[in-house]
Amino acid sequence: MLRLYRFVTFFSLLIVFYATGGHAADLSAEYLYGRWVIDEQNCSSPDSEFIEFKMNGTFEGTRTAKAEFVGFWGLKEGILNLHMVTSPAFFVDIHKELDRFDGIYSYFQGRMVIFNTQNKSFEAFGVIGDEIRRASAVRCP
Questions:
Q1: Would you list the domain boundaries of the chain?
Q2: Which terminus of the chain, N or C, has fewer Cβ atoms within 10 Å?
Q3: What average pLDDT does range 47-70 have in this prediction?
Q4: What is the mean pLDDT of residues 73-90?
């Protein structure tokens, strides 16, 4: 049932995206290369959440100067596909009880529709793991 709900939600988002004149097919992988700060945080703050897309098809998400998740990415027709691993223990500074997960890693898959692309920013909406997320990103120098 949850899988059907996620599929219907994602399909609905695609319809809304294309109905509003989005040009997802025009988006290139080169556009994403580099370091981005998530949800309008500050590029110079070590506490901000960052994601870096590398030319070799890998990416990493960092916060407080350490990688919290790593994986592979691909872009096809404006859909960002993410395959990543992370450990709940990386978030021990937020939830102390997560330290018992040290050394345990989980795989997550994500699909994000990228829209509202500007020269140095974009928005994305989609499913990561079991969560539906909307995020904005600003390119960092």
A1: 2-139
A2: N
A3: 92
A4: 88
Distance CA 55, CA 92 (A): 31
- pTM for the model stands at 0.77
pLDDT, mean over the chain: 81
Count CB neighbours of 21 within 10 A.
7
Q: From CA 59, how far away is CA 74, in angstroms rounded?
A: 10
CATH assignment of 2-139, given 3.40.30, 1.10.1060, 2.40.128, 1.10.10? 2.40.128
Contact between 49 and 63 under an 8 Å Cβ cutoff? The reply is yes
Listing DSSP states for 34-76 in one string gives EEEEETT--TT-TTS-EEEE-TTSEEEEEETTEEEEEEEEEEE
pLDDT category at 68 given cuts 50, 70, 90 is confident
Distance of alpha carbon 57 from alpha carbon 41, whole angstroms: 25
Q: pLDDT tier at 103 (50, 70, 90 boundaries)?
A: confident
d(CA 120, CA 101): 37
* Whole-number Cα distances in Å, 76 to 27, 113, 135: 9, 10, 19
